[in-house]
Amino acid sequence: MKKFLIILSLIICGITAKAQIIYQPYISNSQVSYLQEVQLCHYSNGHWGKWYSAPNFVVFGEYDDFYLSCLDVDEGNPQLHLTIKNYRWPDKKTRKLHRKKKLWYQYEGTIEVYGNTPWKANVIIDIQPYKKRPFTYNAKTKDNKWGIGINFTRMH
Question: The pTM is what?
Answer without folding.
Answer: 0.71
